[in-house]
Write a structure and sequence with these properties.
Blueprint: H1 2-15, H2 22-37, E1 46-49, E2 62-66, E3 72-78, H3 82-87, H4 94-113, H5 117-130, H6 135-159
Parallel strand pairs: 1-3
Antiparallel strand pairs: 2-3
Helix pairs in contact: 2-4, 4-5, 5-6
Length: 160
Amino acid sequence: MPRALALLALTLTLSMPWVSRSGEIDRQTLDTALLLAGLDRASVPVTLAATPPSSASHGVEAWTSYDTDGRSKRIFLYTGSDMFRCARWPLGLRQCRIRLASVLVHEAWHLEHGQDEEDAYEAQIAFLMRNGAATEHVKAVRLAQDRVLAAERRTAGDAR
């Protein structure tokens, strides 16, 4: 039996040329998430990133870069995050794809409106709820929102 499974795995690998094209799969995953989010790739500057910035918090999925004047420039989507890997095209889970799309909604909100995290998270949560996201995903985003906003309050308090 193990030999039959090995032969099946080899046959599937050889018949599925996309297996070895990681970059192409990552781009397809991004395109799928953008489509689900209702965002146009031409107007939303997104770069796929294989590593997060050293300043990133644990569990980072994406981030937005800003210029020296505080204007947003570009979204970076971390391809090594658990969510990105779960959503990978063509076999990614629908719930993971919805969650990944919500991350893009959050970051696109920053592109349009600035650095306010509270409203960016609210846009993300509203997207999740409109698109039938699993309760666990909504709860995870709310938890992240609570952590980020608490950290912002601590930083603001320390600055006084």
